[in-house]
Amino acid sequence: MIYESGNTSYTVVSTLFSGEVNSCYMARLSDDMDGRSFTIIVLRDHNLIRSLMEAESKIESIGDSQLVDHFTYGSSYILVFPYRQERPLEKFFVGDILTLSEVEKIGTNLLLGCISASLPYPMLYLILDQNLINLSRDGSVYFSYDIDFKDFDERKTENDCTVKCAEILKNILSTKADDKNISYELISRKSDNNSYSNFTELYRDLQIAATPKQRRGIIVRIKSFFFRNMDTIFGILFWICLIAGIVALILLLTHVVWGDVPLIRIFINNFKIIGTESLQR
Q1: Residue 66 — φ and ψ, nearest 5°?
Q2: What is the pTM for the complete model shown?
Q3: Residues paired with residue 28 on neighbouring β-strands, in sequence order
Q4: What is the pLDDT of residues 220-249, one digit of tens each?
Q5: Which tens digits make up the pLDDT trace of 131-155?
Q6: Residue 222: enclosing H or E segment and its boundaries?
Q7: Which residues contact 178 (CB under 8 A, 6 or more apart)?
Q8: How crowded is residue 103: how many other Cβ atoms within 10 Å of its Cβ?
Q9: Which backbone phi and psi does 30 adopt, to 5 degrees?
């Protein structure tokens, strides 16, 4: 499947999501050799398309918007964003191996990501509500765009997004609730009362209550290294296990065919004679 925008052609590689009003695909440029990938959102519902276009027109500045392209294709409306391998926050965030200041830093990165996204608030709300939040190995945060637009509500505002973001921050900070966590106490109390009306207010509270950076102990640093490089470590262990399995299979087959293992016999025979003296009597 190919979607064309002017002189640009996007070739679909795989399906990321398929729903009632939209589908999301991973695609690449048809004439691009460097392997860049994109998330393509295909909106099919006419009422949804009109509501989203109206919401887009209300964005005051593009800022750091990740939107690469948008165009109509037949009766569909297409949005194109960069594609990055997913590392879901809810899966890769492990508060036990981080200091309170590091947890607060991740929360700050999430908040700054929301502020700089330059997305329509109804769309940003869906990203937060559907947990399309990813955590890089260095603690930075980025969004995925395989969004289900079924519950798109053009009435969602910055206030709604801020309240949702505050809930996520509260859950992150709760992992350090026993560490004299002033930021958790403050944000939790105001979040429970839906007191936040904009991102600036939430950011100010997080910075005011933030804990000075702490030095981690050796055990915590070892755990942090393990979780940060978990994908690589498990990849290495997989290949070690695979090679060990192949070697074990070869040894088993040689034992069945020859009655023993020739490789082991070579080593044993070498130790029967040391220098010019036989060890056998």
Answers
A1: -85, -5
A2: 0.74
A3: 11
A4: 455 555 555 556 666 677 778 778 878 777
A5: 999 999 899 999 999 999 999 999 9
A6: helix 218-228
A7: none
A8: 24
A9: -65, -30
